[in-house]
Structures are given as structure tokens and as C-alpha cells.
Amino acid sequence: MTGLDRFMAALNREEPDMVPIWELIINEPTLSALHGDIGYLEFAEREGLDGVTIFENQVLTPGEGGALVDEWGIKWLTGEAGVGYPSGGPISSPEDLQSYEPPCPNAPHRFENLKAAVDKFKGEKAIVFLTHEAFEFSHYLRGLDDLLIDYFERPDFVHDLARLVIDYKIEVAETAIDLGADVIVSGDDYAHRLAPIMSVAHWEEYSLPYLDELVKAVHRKGVPHIKHTDGNIWSILGQMVDVGIDAIDPLEPIAGMDIGEVKDRYGDRVAVIGNVDCTEVLTHAPIEEVVDAVKETIAKASVGGGHILASSNSIHPGVKPENYRAMVEAARKYGVYPLDSDMVEEYSKRNYIAKYLDKK
User: Fold this and answer.
1) 148: exposed, middle or buried (C-beta count within 10 Å: 0-12, 13-18, 19+)?
2) Which of 281, 299, 303, 348 is deepest in the core (most CB within 10 A)?
3) What is the structure's pLDDT at 27?
4) How many angstroms separate the CA atoms of 132 and 123, rounded?
5) How distant is the alpha carbon of residue 156 from its chain centre?
């Protein structure tokens, strides 16, 4: 099977020849530590990943205080680890929104990364295009604290802002599919380790309808949708499944999201992606513990198919490259179907994250 075949079989909750491997994001130093300065697509080829994640292209211009400003007018700063984070947006009031013009979703440069991936991997690896729903870019534009206050004080403004964002994101997703994307993933993070950032009622009012719109738009184009969100999402997961997402990523075990329990509850309706811990195990643990975490994840999530192996969030700058490599190698060794029944029996009863939860 090709990587694309494996990936799509898993999204269809079927059993491929081996458990597919994918990551939402792979940052430095892992990229260059393992293969040098070769670029993400070449890295994915050498690592034998079954899918690649493609971001839309954004033009960045220099701003004040060392910030870079994207086409939305969002300011980005770079942290010590080299990863950018939003530090302010252009929408300070409802009046600002009235005169605001979003970027052109189909600007000629928007899909350069996607076209390169299609040229290199179409038909061989799953080309997963990253977009968003309404929540994440709304708080980038407005500021998270201000947006959450708006939930109480300016509900119409929140929906107007969300409408601007989702219309853009849907158009970008539809064009990406037309250009060759095999899968759409939306990356709005809703939660922290204990619960969603907002109340369930506010999530149902201000986020769920726009997730529903995106999923329906993607499905009209005939491709599957992966929902990515960090944190403890038990209180809202059922509703996400109900709107028709095809997979849930990344299911953080340190946030209480046991991938086996998720599969037991929802595996007849949704594929599961994850969830080798990247907070403690991939960053600090010895390789033997990484291997055990992979074996446990496969034992809990891969039986019968419907599982794509990944970290519990991303291969961020704190991940040890050798631990990432150990994860991939273990997945290839222990993720071949039919799975080893003795391994499944033993490791499905384990809980590798428990010792780290005890530290909290």
C-alpha cells in the first residue's frame, strides 16, 4: 500500500497493511538533526511518513518591535525556541471590523506550498491541508481575552467576526481540494488540560456552528476532515463527532484523553489520531519508554484499523530528535497488521502516562 492508501484506509476506519504515521507539525531541531537542511517535504520522504501537512502561504512584512505582520494584520513574534506566536491583531472594536478587509483567499501565492507537495507526492502520500474554523483566527484578530469578554457583551460582534473568518477559510479549503489536497485538517485549539477554554454553552454558540459549516463544505468536495484540538475535550467531543468529523487529533493523554477510551466510545464513527505524549515522553524519557508508549498506543487504538499514529500534539522544539526517530521506528516495527495479539493483550492494560499525572 502507498502512504495515501494507508492514511485513507485509517480515516475510513479500515485496517491497512500497517498503522500510518503522520504529524500535524514537525519543528526544528528534529527536521535538521536527522537529515540536515533538506526541507520538510524531503524530510517526510526520507522518514517514510504516510502524510504531509501543508500550510497556506502568507506574506510577512516587518513590523514594530521585531514583529512580523501577516496579510491579516496579525503581529507575530518569535519565541526562544524559534516558533512564532500571535502578539496582537487589528480588530480593537466593532467599528474596526466594519472597515476591515481580509486577505484574498485565492491570491496567486496562497497555494505555492500545496502545489509543491502535489507535484512531489500526489497519489503516494496523503496531502493534508491545514485550515481553521472561526475561533482561532478570531482571537488572533481580536485578542483572546477580549474575544472571551465579547462572548458575554457583544455576541453579534463575535458572530460577525466569525463569519468573516469562516468564509475565508472555507474558500481556501475548497480551492486547496481543487488543487489536489487529499484531506483537510482544521487546527483551532479549544481546550487546556482540564477543560475547554470557554464554557460548553459558549462553545456550542460560537464555535460549533462554524465547525459544522467547514465539515459540510469539505465533505461536499468529497474529501475527509480531521479535527485538531489540544486539551481535555471530553465535554465537547460527542458534538464534534455528531457534526461529521472523520478523525480527531491528537488526543493528549496528559490532558486525560485516553485514546483507547475515545476509540471505545466513538471508534465506530470516527478515526483516532495520536497520541504518543510529547510533553514528557518524547522530550525527556529514555528511548525504551518511547517504544513502550508506542506499543501501548497501538494496542489501544490500532486494533481493527481506524488509527493514525502521531504525537500528542506536534514534534515541537523540545522533542528530542532521537526520541522522534524511536517513535517512528517502533511504529513501523509493531504497527504491522495483523497486530501481535500478545502485545495487544499486554499493552492495552497499561497506562504509561500515569506516572507523569502523579507529578501534577
Assistant:
1) middle
2) 281
3) 94
4) 25
5) 29
